[in-house]
Amino acid sequence: xxxELGPAATEAQKVAAAKAIYKWAMREGRRxxxxxxxEPFVSKGSFHILADDLxxxxxxxxxxxxxxxxxxxxxxAAQ
Length: 79
What we know:
The radius of gyration is 16 Å and the shape is flat. The protein has helices at residues 2-5, 11-28, 40-52, 62-78. The protein is mostly helical and 79 residues long.
């Protein structure tokens, strides 16, 4: 997503790309990841595990947005 959007992408373009990736991931959840394992929750859950590990994301700025939210809490916890 970062490669396709480029550094000058607007927020609207980022949100549209994030929605497209999420829809793709949910659609791919219908595929079998191995013979006999075709339950959608398995591959959908795998995408969410990768997102939890910050290996994939739904929005290009997710990590920086998360840090913006968490930094004030970390600063006040240190006091």
